[in-house]
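Worked problem 6 (solution included).
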Amino acid sequence: MTTDNFVHEINVTWGDCDPAQIAYTARLPYFALDAINAWWEAHFDGDGWFQLQIDRNIGTPFVNLSMDFRSPVTPRHKLMCETYPTRLGNKSITFGMKARQNGVLCFEGSFTCVFTIADVFKSQSAPEELARVIKPLVRADLA
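Solution. The predicted structure is:
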């Protein structure tokens, strides 16, 4: 594990785009969630949302998504999604993201999940084995 910035690279393709030759609006939250899943995998030995849910019985359903669009996303360059936790609450985690292409900020956002006991869909406090890793990575200055 490292405290360096985590950046997930997404290959935007022709199939992601609309007739205006920019990424469909609905693809942008998809790209963001893909980057957050990659953040989990990078920090928890390859365990993303699927493994958290199935193998660890930890759910993380979203309760809030907020995105600001700054510049169109196109297939011309890789989409570099800088992803980081901005808050770890008792029962939730908020991720921030800044997505850039060729150094240009395309979108930024905030994404909040709550922790649940997956098989009964009941809220729970942040599991200690996750909190121990997440706490030192929280970047409140970028919230």
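Discussion: Helices lie at 27-43, 49-55, 128-134.
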